[in-house]
Amino acid sequence: MSVLLKVAARLFNTTATPASVASGDMWYRSDTDQVQVSDGAAGIPITVGPVGNLPVIASTRWHGLPAYGNAASINIPDGRLYALPFWPGRTCTVTAVAANVTLALVGGLMRMGIYESDGALPTTLLADYGTVTAGVTGLRTISGLSTAVRPVLHYLVIGRQSAGLTLSVSSRSSWEPIVSDAAATISSNTNTYYVDGVGGALPGTFGTPDGTDQGPCLTVQLT
């Protein structure tokens, strides 16, 4: 006769590595929302998933998304809102976000923000960061932010909101495995979802993506 035993375990809740740990000890870091374990060696503990696409958060430093790929430049159509997967490996706070303008558009604006997800696609608006001018080249930064994010999938968004000529920004020629297509296709450098026709404040829900593309790259400051 076999017996099925179901056990619910609650780990030790702490905001720092316990003072004395042995190999196999495990605890929950409530300040970072990470499960950690000791292998008996000196130094930092082992983090037990998830790692996300930003597994290491260096406080106050800047983190690039996409996290890899060769430098490139793309043109942004007016009203197109790109959504970049943002999956930190620990709880953190977004304090600033920036994009790099390579071909300026006088009178042009870029709007940025962040959406929650259902684990796959962008869903509910978490924060609208407003706009920054795209009328000069170089890094365009929106700072003074304070958005707390959990170690789960989010989407940072950036879109152009202006009519007129061409606006180009830095991109990365890379593929993002979290981004998937609605139909069978083989295309290169798919790393963002997008929706078209977004003007003014960000919509409360992202909605069904209009497509996938190689989107702009962002750099985000985290604490």
Low-confidence stretches: none
Major beta sheet summary? 7 strands, antiparallel
- Strand % is 35-45%
Distance between the termini: 53 Å
CATH class of the largest domain: Mainly Beta
Structural class: mainly beta
The total count of helices amounts to: 0
Summarize the amount of helix as a percent range. Answer: under 10%
Shape, per Cα inertia axes: elongated
In CATH, the architecture of the largest domain is Sandwich
**Any idea of the CATH topology of the largest domain?**
Jelly Rolls
Measured on Cα atoms, how large is the radius of gyration?
Answer: 20 Å
Sketch the topology as an H/E string, one letter per element. EEEEEEEEEEEEEEEEE
| Count of distinct structural domains | 2
Your description of this structure?
With 223 residues, the chain is mostly beta strands. The chain has 2 domains: 12-47, no CATH class; 62-222, Jelly Rolls (Sandwich). 0% of the residues lie in helices and 43% in strands. The chain has no helices and 17 strands. It has strands at residues 12-14, 26-29, 34-37, 46-47, 62-65, 70-75, 81-86, 92-103, 109-117, 122-133, 138-142, 147-149, 154-160, 168-173, 192-195, 211-213, 218-222. Strands 5, 6, 8, 11, 12, 14 and 17 form a 7-stranded antiparallel β-sheet that branches. It has a 6-stranded antiparallel β-sheet with strand order 10-9-13-7-15-16, with no helix packed on it. A hairpin with an 8-residue loop joins β3 (34-37) and β4. The termini are far apart. The model has no long low-confidence stretch (mean pLDDT 94).
